[in-house]
Amino acid sequence: MAPAQKRSGRYTSEGVVQSYIHMGGKIGVLVEVNCESDFVAKNEGFVKFAKDIAMHIAAANPIALIPEDVSAEIVAKEKEIYMGQAKELGKPENMLEKIAEGKLKKFFKENCLLNQAYVKDPSISISDYLTDTIGKIGENIKISKFARFQLGE
Prior knowledge:
By secondary structure, this protein is an alpha+beta fold. The protein is built from six helices and five strands, in the order H-E-E-H-H-H-H-E-E-H-E. Strand 1 (14-22) and strand 2 form a beta hairpin.
């Protein structure tokens, strides 16, 4: 079992709320990143991870942490769009659902934080970066929640 998997059940009651301001104050991010101990919350690697995640959120604008957090309304709307596109392309009626499901997977990969390709290294996902950081720091780490604000939105 990988070190990150061994730690996944541990309680994360410490951590930081990291902020990041981008484009001269036009975009702002708050992200809560938790760990097991106050000692690790002050660790340079943990703080760097939290800052990197806040910067990533500013750049990539995820709509949810994981696919299960995406509202049912958004999922239904996206599915309807994908089924309509497939129908317009003349795809058989019995394939529309499968095509829409495949496109939804891609939608979740592009719009859910843990599934997104990390902007500083697109060869890995945020989930991969999290797992790597857990292995390096030696404690369970969890990205709990985030908020992204953009002037005029």
